[in-house]
Amino acid sequence: MGHWWQEQTVYQVYPRSFNDSNHDGMGDIPGIIEKLDYLTALGIGVLWLSPVYKSPQKDNGYDIADYKDIDPLFGTMADMDQLIVEAEKRGIKIVMDLVINHNSDQHEWFQKSRQRIDPYTDYYIWRDGKDGGPPNNWTSFFAGEAWQYDDMRKQYYLHLFATEQPDLNYHNKAVIEEVKDIIKCWLDRGVHGFRCDVINIIFKSSLEDGKRQLVLKGLEHYLSQEGNHEILQELRRDVLDHYDCFTVGETVLVTPKMARDLCDPSRKELDMIFSFEHMEADQYFVKWFKRKFQKKVFFETLSKWQKELHWNANYFENHDQLRSVSRFGDDTRYWMESATMLATLLFSLKGTPFIYQGQEIGMTNFDFQSMDDIQDVESHNVYRFLGRFHLPKWLRWRMIFKSSRDNVRTPMQWSDSEYGGFSTVQPWLKVNSNYHTINVANQFHQEGTIWSYYQTLIHLRNNDQTLIYGDFEKMYIDKHVFIFRRYDEQEAYIIAVNFSTKKRTISYRGDVLISNYNTTRFNGVLQPYEAIILKG
């Protein structure tokens, strides 16, 4: 009826924080292999692997120094090949990160480009300075200027992210050919697709000054440009369409119209995209400026994207976001109810569900104490940048504490043993102190746990064509309650979720397909953080 990637649940592994097999404090590929049976038991069909390529690790692997080699931190290419084989034996397909907007300043291409050695001279975006400063006024996603002066080349290079992540030049056709070769290399090794990092900003139409605004000056010159679409179509036509694979794009600041242009099947670009609008219901424009979680905005946004796109990549967590139970629920008094309610909502939306390691056991945001606990380069850059505006340290720390990506990058909590069973030595990032109670060992194959609820939901969706392919219809939204319908010619379900600490009365009643309160007949009263799927 559809594609295999529409009928599976994707599980994202952040390798350095998943499982340490060689006791060096860093997760690794053999550690992932050790946990494949765990993923099988959960019901996972696709494993999305955050970068394991060779890297100086300035941005935890998103600064790639060699696209065709494995970083020794994580293992060897032989380990990677074994992971692909062992996963395939269990019916799990591997999807890798494709980071092609930028790579590392330690990459051979960049080092030769600095020296003007052909054919690499124009692999990156180099320009002379202007009026004693950078070529234009663009700013970086990681705060500060988007240009860095290079003493060797005597020019500035563009970096929309960290200084150590120079942007590639897609006006150079040789760069596109290099990317095709990288994609083909990994597909030939047996991977089945890619999550494409910031894929809608790879093409810069011009280098004119950006409009004057507080953040992200220059955006209008590189966000979802026509040249970007042409590149994606070329990659699809020349490489991707020759394999049984899929692509999901991380697409920043997209509107539904932009999203349709990127993933409409007739355009042959991406298969689906991650939108961010629903993740902005607790912030003002950028994540560092928090506001109270606007539940109604969250519901309306989810509904809008369900109707606007033919297929969604649904998620509430990933390596760049906060823990959903802490962000959208109540991770203290209603921890379990919040986690299972969010899971019900996620798996009942139309689209491919993506979950992030630890989400299935209700892992929470970290209990950081100071900037000394933070490893994330983005967080440190923003902390320094805000200091230029004389914001007091306490306020800057509060902003980092509430928004840092390290909240979701803490080591996986496998057991209540030291370091959460992740390692036998001090991990690269501290383990959340609640690992004594929140861990896999306490929930694995145990009835009435968050893990078992996820397992049930995954099995339910995997075997229900209406939940997979059925249409979506919004039925009711208020400040706390979201009700919608999934239906096709054979079946219809009503999904109701209560995002509050109080009971809510709704007009629907009936037999229950699944409930996070374990009810079989619904009488019209939603309990705090209750989620139900009603039959018919």
Keywords:
hydrolase, 18% strand, six-stranded antiparallel β-sheet, 23 strands, globular, 536 residues, GH13_cat_dom, eight-stranded parallel β-sheet, 14 helices, Immunoglobulin-like
Write the layout of secondary structure elements.
Elements: E1 10-13, H1 29-34, H2 36-42, E2 46-49, E3 53-54, E4 66-70, H3 77-89, E5 93-98, H4 108-114, E6 126-127, E7 147-150, E8 155-158, H5 173-189, E9 193-196, H6 226-238, E10 246-250, H7 256-263, E11 272-274, E12 283-284, E13 286-290, H8 295-308, E14 313-314, H9 324-327, H10 335-348, E15 352-356, H11 377-387, H12 393-403, H13 450-462, H14 465-469, E16 471-477, E17 481-487, E18 492-498, E19 504-505, E20 510-515, E21 521-522, E22 525-526, E23 531-535
Parallel strand pairs: 1-2, 1-15, 2-5, 5-9, 9-10, 10-11, 14-15
Antiparallel strand pairs: 3-4, 6-8, 7-8, 12-13, 16-17, 17-18, 18-23, 19-22, 20-21, 20-23
Helix pairs in contact: 10-13, 11-12
Molecular structure report:
It is a single chain. With 536 residues, the protein is α/β, with parallel strands linked by helices. Among the domains are: 8-98 and 312-368 and 405-463, Glycosidases (TIM Barrel); 372-403, no CATH class; 471-535, Immunoglobulin-like (Sandwich). The protein contains 14 helices and 23 strands. Helix 10 runs parallel beside helix 13. The longest helix is centred in the middle third of the chain and has 17 residues, at 173-189. The protein starts with 9 loop residues before the first strand and ends with a strand. The relative contact order is 0.10.
